[in-house]
Amino acid sequence: MNKPANASLFWPRTRRVFREAFSEFMGTFILIMFGDGVVAQVLLSDGEKGNYQSISWGWGLGVMLGVYTAGYSGAHLNPAVTLSNCVFRRFPWKKFPIYALSQVLGAMTAAAVVYANYKSAIEFYEGGKGILTVPGYSDTATAGIFCTYPAAFLTKTGQFFSEFIASGLLMFLIYALKDDANLGAGNLVPLGLFFVIFGIGACFGWETGYAINLARDFGPRLVSYMIGYGPNVWRAGDYYFWVPMVAPFCGAFIGGLLYDVLLFTGESPINSPYFGLYKLSPGLRREWDGVSWSDERGKNDDSPV
C-alpha cells in the first residue's frame, strides 16, 4: 500500500496527531471572532451599526461557521457539549481535557484579535487611552464586548437559572438535530444550529448575555483581565464570573438527559441495562453477558441511529 507523498513530512505528521485539537481551537476561534466582533460593532457605534438582533445574528453565524470549520473533531466548541457527549454518546473521556483546553485557547486568541481590531474604537468610546471599564462600574463600559455580565436586577438564583435554561435548550436541540432516528437535520446541522443560537439569543439572551459556554466566557474574560480591565471582570455582578462556568455544564447535562429519556432510541446509558451502571458490577455484567445494546435495540427499534 502506497503512503501519501507527504506522509513522512514533519508538519503533516504533526497535524495528523493534533488535528482534533486544532479543529476545536479554530472552530471556537471562528465562533468568538464573529460573536465578540458583532458585540463590539453594535456597542462601539452606539447602535448605529447594528442592534440586539444583529448580535443574535452574529452569534448564530459564528456557531454555524465554527461548526463547518471544526467538522473533523465533531465541532463541540463548548466544554459542556463535550462533557455531555462523554456521558451520553460514548465520547472518550480522555479527550475531554484536550477538547476543553483547545476551546478555551481558541476563544482567548479570538478575543485578543477582536481587541486588537477595535482597540482605537474602544479607547474613543471609553473616553481616552488606557481607560478600560467593566459594566456596573461605568456608563461607557466595554468589557461586555468580550464576556457576559448579568442585568443588575438579577439575583444569583436568577443568573444561574437563566444560563441553566439556555444551556439545557442548546444541548437538547443539538441532540435533536443530530438524531437521524428522529427527523434529524443531516448535513444541515450547522444551519439548524444557527437558528438555535439565534433563537436562544433573541428569546433568552437579555438577562445574562447567554454565554452557555465556559470557553466562550472564561477565555475572553481572562483576556480582558490581562489587557487591562482589571479585577472588576471577576467582581462584577456579585462575582458573576463563576455562573457561566458552572451553569452550562448543569444545563447541558439535564438537556441531554431529557432528550435521551424522552426521545432517543439509540445507544445511550439511558437505553442500557441499569442505565449503564451494570458495567460497574461483575454480577450484573454476568447477568447481561451476551446481551449487547444492539441486540436489545433490535427487539424494539428498527430505525438507524
UniProtKB/TrEMBL annotation:
Q: Where in the cell is it found?
A: Membrane
Write out the catalysed reaction.
H2O(in) = H2O(out); glycerol(in) = glycerol(out)
* Protein name listed in UniProt: Aquaporin
Indicate the family of this protein: Belongs to the MIP/aquaporin (TC 1.A.8) family.
Q: Where are the transmembrane segments?
A: 21-44, 56-75, 96-118, 160-177, 189-212, 239-259
Taxonomically, the superkingdom here is Eukaryota
Keywords, sorted A to Z: Membrane, Repeat, Transmembrane, Transmembrane helix, Transport
The yes or no answer to whether the keyword Transmembrane helix is present is yes
Q: What organism is the protein native to?
A: Teratosphaeria nubilosa
Provide GO CC annotations from the record: plasma membrane
**GO molecular function term, any single one:** glycerol channel activity
| SUPFAM superfamilies reported for this sequence | Aquaporin-like (SSF81338)
User: What membrane topology does the UniProt entry give?
Assistant: Multi-pass membrane protein
